[in-house]
Design goal:
The chain is 42% helix and 16% strand. The chain contains 16 helices and 13 strands. The longest helix is centred in the last third of the chain and has 19 residues, at 349-367.
Length: 373
């Protein structure tokens, strides 16, 4: 029997936490039984395109987020689902446009329309508020609901029942340590072995609070002159953050590493992980950092359900001095048992992948005899 094909509906497949989680699932699936295909809302080259195709996935790219042409988008959705009756299950990770694609999918006879909540709040700008209003309709046409955390599910689904699937990672990959590789990457970044390397991973957006991170790091540098900061990621606000770092006189102490495909090496090169986000669902990067054994200092706006290691500290965003004191007084050694704690807490991706694989196969078996209506 050929593998069933499940359609994953995304904004695009760049290097965000939601996208990384879906790729983690895809890699962990038995692809002789379940194959992923992808529907994007941007027509552009994306970070994961090549790997998706190598794994056997098919990608369809629409343009609605570029041309904002909703009538065209609806026509394209109808044509797409009419041409692909093999999709009995769709898994929507893009809540803002779910009110459109779920409705069209239902009308085209797709019996299983799962939704996935990946966040706990929206950005406080016009785009964020539009996303909030549109996402309020996401729940309407769903048959099944998933969320990365309890808070994320409650925000998007209200009182409707949902299943929490933690944002798991490949714990073998991130728990692996190599002293020679750590030294080599630190040398590549220009970081001396006696320097303390603070790290952050995230797109340069308002949500990730890079501006506040630089203020925090500047305070740390006053007490820890051998401190360095590496920022991993890309995004629209990167030029603004580069200008801020220069204006604050941080100079070579801040490293802009760009988008990387070797994240496990980056975590092993770091000594401390910082995540002062304004809000998060259950951030994949925080799971990766914990599995890597890093001491983590995280804003108290981040879902506490993300914590499983012993060296994670939640701190108030509006008290930067508390961050400095917490870092100065903390034990900054690695948690050598973090992988075991992650597996016990359900953060190995194989746990979520096994659940979803069984869900997809079961739903296909139930609905395989249905006719398109």
């Amino acid at each position: 029997m050929p593998a069933i094909r499940v359609l994953q509906i995304m904004p695009a497949m760049d290097t965000g936490g939601m996208e990384t989680f879906v790729m983690n699932l895809y890699r962990a699936m038995d692809r002789e039984k379940v194959q992923f295909d992808f529907l994007y809302h941007y027509d552009k080259p994306c970070f994961y395109d090549e790997e998706i195709c190598a794994l056997g996935g098919r990608i369809t790219k629409l343009t609605v987020r570029q041309d904002n042409n909703l009538p065209k988008y609806l026509r394209e959705l109808r044509a797409f689902f009419s041409a692909h009756p093999e999709y009995r299950v769709i898994h929507g990770h893009y809540s803002g446009f779910g009110m459109f694609y779920n409705t069209v999918a239902r009308r085209c006879g797709v019996p299983v329309r799962a939704g996935h909540s990946h966040n706990t709040a929206y950005e406080h700008n016009l785009v964020g508020q539009l996303d909030r209003m549109m996402s309020a309709q996401f729940d309407r046409e769903l048959t099944h609901r998933f969320a990365c955390s309890q808070r994320a599910g409650e925000m998007l689904y209200g009182s409707h029942p949902f299943k929490v699937l933690p944002n798991g990672v490949n714990t073998d990959r991130f728990a692996r340590h190599d002293a020679a590789d750590r030294a080599a990457l630190r040398a590549e970044l220009g970081v001396a072995e006696d320097e303390i390397l603070f790290g952050h991973v995230g797109r340069f957006t308002q949500q990730k609070n890079h501006a506040g991170l630089l203020e925090l790091f500047a305070s740390l540098r006053q007490r820890m002159p051998r401190a360095r900061l590496v920022l991993v990621g890309g995004g629209a606000l990167e030029p603004q953050i580069r200008e801020q770092a220069a204006r604050m006189g941080l100079g070579q102490s801040v490293i802009f590493a760009g988008v990387r495909g070797d994240m496990q090496r980056l975590y092993h090169a770091m000594d401390v992980f910082l995540l002062p986000s304004l809000f998060e669902g259950l951030p994949v990067v925080l799971v990766e950092a914990q599995v890597s054994g890093l001491p983590c200092f995280v804003s108290d706006t981040v879902d506490p359900g993300a914590a499983f290691a012993q060296n994670i500290h939640y701190l108030p965003l509006n008290q930067p001095d508390a961050w400095v004191q917490a870092i100065l007084s903390a034990d900054l050694t690695r948690d050598l048992h973090a992988r075991e704690r992650a597996i016990e807490a359900g953060f190995d991706v194989r746990t979520s992948a096994e659940f979803l694989q069984n869900f997809y196969l079961e739903q296909y078996a139930i609905h395989s005899g249905e006719e398109t209506v």
